[in-house]
Design goal:
Number of helices: 26
Radius of gyration: 31 Å
Shape: globular
Strand content: 15-25%
Mean pLDDT: 83
Amino acid sequence: MGTEIGGGIAGGAVSYLLEKLETFVSREWNLKENINRARQELEIEQRSIEALLRDAASNNDPDHQFTVWIQNVRNQAYAIKDVLDLFWLYQNQETVWRRFKMSHSIDNLIKDIKGSLQRIKEAKDRYHHTMPFIRIPSASSNTDIQVREAHLLNGNVEAVGIEEPTNKLMSWAMKPKQRLEVMFVVGMAGLGKTTLVHSVYERVKKRFDRHVWITASNCKTELDILTLLVEKFGRPVTQRADVVAQACKLLFEKRYVIVLDDLWVKEAWESFKIALPDGKNSRIIITTRRGDIANSCRDGDSIDIHKLQPLSSERAKQLFYQKAFSRNGTCPSGLVEVSESILQKCDGLPLGIIEIGRLLSNKSPTKNEWKTLHDSLESELRSTGKLSNVMKVLAASHKDLPYHLKDCFLYMSIFPENNPVKRRRLVRLWIAEGFVTDEMGKTVEEVGEEYLKELIDRNLIKANEFDFDDLPKSVEVHSLMLKMVLSIAHEENFCSVCTEAERNLAENTRRLSIQKKDFEPSQDLPWVRSFFGFSIGEPKIGSNFKLLKVLDIQGTNMEEFPNVITNLLLLRYLSLRNTNIKSIPRSLNDLRHLETLDLKQTLVTEVPKAVLQLEKLRHLLVYRYNFKEGVPTFGIVQGFKAPKKITGLNNLQTLSFVKASVQSRLTRQLRMIQGLENLTQSRKLGVVELAKEDGARLCQSIGKMPNLHSLSMTSLNLEVALELDAMSTNPPAFLQRLYLNGPLQKLPKWISSLHDLVRIRLKWSSLPENPIPALENLPHLVELHLLDAYTGTQLEFKSAKFPQLKILELRQLEQLKSIVMEEGTLPCLQKLIIVHCSALVHVPRGINKLICLQMLVLHDMPDPFVAMLRKNGGRLQRFVHHIPIIRSYQQGQLVEDLS
């Protein structure tokens, strides 16, 4: 028998877990005699129920009865977690327990759980009596969904928007190559992957000796694909054990093209490819939502990946009008505005555009009818709505997720539409929620980053913008995908979103996302675990939120630190970023579980000694940028004064930005600098106001941070040099980002040894010696930024140097007269930025040899320099005509496009 593809609830596992559930119901609890024993037993039962939920999550085609039963179990799992946390409050803060306003004691809550679980067990018994066998197909076996998706998109005869990828795939399929080649076509659900590949397949299939189309999602076992292959060629499969040999024989010495449509599991491809002879000029095309599978299978240049993109706004409009106004494809002027709003929600997704367009084609073309659909789009997408087909197609991707990623994905329901969330913020929130598990040899942050990468690769979360190192800076979900996520989050009591339109909150909601100006909790919501405020008004934090673990109210209108926060004893994550609070109270020391304290862009300049008792603290961010008309000035980063024993927080991963110099420096801050050596777990460290005489001691402390990835150091002022030579003996081997702000007598030699360095920014260094030779051999350097960093007249970039550099920024190099770029240097450079280099008289010599350069940006450059690059009459324009984008700015404003 072949190995089952996908998951399912094993009958034995279900029976075992249900027996555990029954045992839990029948057990007697005696909390008054031994509260610790009760807590331990609750934890054991919680793990059993969690295992049941984990297995139930792999049931991808449950009936309504099963869904209701599992939701009831999930609610009791929530209740057990709440009681376990109440135990902690009871044992550690009895006075808080007395103040806690709730209708039941712990004893009564346990009785409630027992009664609820008894009723759940009885419902289970009735359920198994009427449905003794639970059909659990694999996640990929949503055949009806996939056929519907293909039907929807193939119905569009014109196949709007796929002409370019069609031509690309046609060229790839027909280009003679004496080997077998494979192309993965990857994209989120509903993009039209099947339509695209079907169009190509129909055009090229007759040019091959053998051709076959296989819907991979129909296959339950690894050998099913090969069995289908053999049967589609009209051959009977006598014995499944011989199917590999049969398939190989049919394709041997043949030129063939095979399509595997809708692949979900890597093992299916691995078992299929072993039967494929290396046919000359043969082609395999695979469509999949799973970019992670495509990436893992790309083991050579014979396997390529085509990432299908959403339609452009013009193509989306053309397709929508074609479906909504099928007679002439023209939109009446009175419906243009509401059409554009609907298209914005579709965000270029053909499936949504086609389904909504078809639905509207059967409605009266009036503003009222169309606005009604626009406003009810979320309800129409639900299982009973007229657009439920769209939801089912999208939901298959969610159902296919492993259990540990499902809550991570549902977390996107918290954030408003068109409001991307920063990558690091999201990962820290997942950690605070307990979604990220420990893995040997990795920090939880690293594991969380892997979770996010997998969700992006699966095309469920999309990167909104990328950093210089190709990591996403912020992420979001597609607009229609967000509708699906909101629906599931609501059904599972995962999150309640409060907007101007939606004000009712679920009674047992776990998370609150407030997206309206004025929110006053009118309901008793003691079980809320996470509170988010995205409004511009002052947030109202309920006094009964005693079990809160996440409080994120950044960007809200707040002047004072809310005192109620210090009563949230289970808090793990606190963000007051971008508010106007000026101080934090000493009573913060009660928040013993706090892992992240984010006070970036607040007015806080000092952290009290109370923070020293937060032993679990991992991320402490207390700083603000003081921009002056957009011009970078020295001292732009305002850090905070730290208690001298802050170095006792041994779990700190991030410390930014701590002041190294205050009035009582010798008795306080010097001890702090010396004590930094205790922060051996640090990944990111930022220090400002560093005196010259403290440099050597700081370097010694940094040498004892083996895992440091990011380091920023700023001198006391522009008259005080950074003294960093002492780090030569033991520089941080894994450092990736280095920011040095302040005068340097010479560039520290140890920088040349930083093998992993990807970014370096030297600002106000005023180096008399050219820094380029010390940096040019760094193998992974991607970004180099020099701001008033060099007082010489020439920079020379030698051949075969800076092998990975993509971004080069030269700013305020007042004495610089010429830049020489030898042929073969900077082979990967994509963006060159030159700012206020007033003495520069010529474009970089050799710039015409930089074949990868995509953008040349000039800021505040003299007009004679800009004139040389103008398209009409610029005498040096011929050296830059290969660069797609050339722009000139003055005082931050675009004044000329020289492209």
